[in-house]
Amino acid sequence: MATTEPRIDLTRLLKVRRTGSKVVAQCPACHAAGNDRSGEHFYLNAATGKWGCGCLPGDTEHRREIFRLIGIRGERRPDPERDRRWRLERDAERRRQAVEKSLADAAARARAGIIARHLWSLAQVRESSPQRIDSPLVESDPCHFLSSLFSKGDVVWTGEVFHSGSNHADHWRTVADWHDAPTVGPMVSPATWKPGSTRRTADSVLASPFVVLDFDGLPGATPRTSAEIRQHVEESLAVAKWIRDDLHWRLAAIIWTGGKSIHAWFISPPTAALQSLRLTAAALGIDSGLIGRPEHPCRLPGQRHPKTGNMSRVIWLQEFSPPNQTKI
Ligand SMILES: [Zn+2]
User: Fold this and answer.
1) DSSP characters for 264-295?
2) pLDDT digits over 190-241, tens only?
3) Structural domain boundaries of the chain?
4) Residue 258: which of 281, 233, 294 has the closest Cα?
5) What is the pLDDT of residues 235-282, one digit of tens each?
6) Who's near 95: CB < 8 A, 6+ residues apart?
7) Which of the residues in the chain have pLDDT under 50?
8) How many A from CA of 30 to the centre of ligand 1?
């Protein structure tokens, strides 16, 4: 049993943020596995020396891996090659952050102009929907929504966020089978799944025909009053229209979640377009954490919002019988 915390080389951490003696940074072990891109898992208390990964706190093997990567060990042999690689990665990371910041700043400055040029009221959105939003079928039937976006034979997940794992296998069905299921929703993922999938994780995703943009608002400016929410929704719709008209992404659906947010479903654009939107998303009031995460759940129409009690509703929906765009 170690009586003192094995020490960490702070200079090797990436994406470091300090508040007093608390340090949060990218977990090197998670990062090596392709995770923790936003740099939130690793924590260290500089006063006590306690550290760990907030994502896998009880995993001793993970902890060992972190120490192997950035721990200070008295007898650690010098390894110039490893140090050189680490410096290269750190410098690349700094350059990437500088580019991301300047892109985000530009997007923040451009946002007001985008909104002014692309104003799109709720009434105009509903009016311009290819499927008329004048029946409960189009506005709030989750199965009709699935059939409008996916092909009959596509395997789609619906359920609660926690419906993942082998005892939840019945949450993966073909679109045709969802029509006969006793319950649907309340959430869906904008993905199709490999046959036999039982875990709602990225490695089970077969294809990502859509990207869903969650307009959750600008950082630190949560809309609260109904006037603020209305303004937020209309600004979000304007940004969605700009993405459709000026960036030429193909809009598939817009859902009002019943809370303060709208979800715009776009047919997945090329990866580079997705990547550049991810960098500017936060400045545009879009939750960047969901972009490129097709396994992530979002609300189906006709579902009660847990906080407001409002029903989620379709406000814009592409033609029924779309061409099959779900093939890889
Ligand atoms: Zn970790």
Assistant:
1) EEEEPPPHHHHHHHHHHTGGGT--GGGTT-TT
2) 999 999 999 999 999 999 999 999 998 887 778 888 888 889 999 999 999 9
3) 10-70, 110-317
4) 233
5) 999 999 999 999 999 999 999 998 888 999 999 999 889 988 888 898
6) none
7) 1-3, 75, 323, 326-328
8) 4
In this prediction, residue 85 carries a pLDDT of: 80
Distance (Å, rounded) from C-alpha 286 to C-alpha 108? 12
Q: Looking at residue 107, what is its pLDDT?
A: 83
CB neighbours of residue 304 within 10 Å? 13
| One-letter amino acid of 257 | T
DSSP output for 169-219: GGGEEEHHHHTTSS---SEE-S-EE-TT--S-SGGGEEE--EEEEEE--ST
Q: Ligand 1 centre from 142 Cα, in Å?
A: 37
Query: From the CA of 260, how far away is ligand 1's center (Å)?
Result: 32
pLDDT at res. 76: 54
Cα 195 to averaged position of ligand 1 atoms, centre (Å) = 30
Q: For residue 328, what pLDDT is reported?
A: 42
CA 214, 312, 118 angle in degrees (round to 5)? Answer: 50
Architecture of the domain defined by 110-317: Alpha-Beta Complex (3.90)
Closest CA to 317 of 253, 256, 237: 253
**Of the candidates 200, 210, 215, the residue with the CA atom closest to the CA atom of residue 148:** 210
Measured CA to CA, the distance from residue 174 to residue 193 in angstroms comes to 10
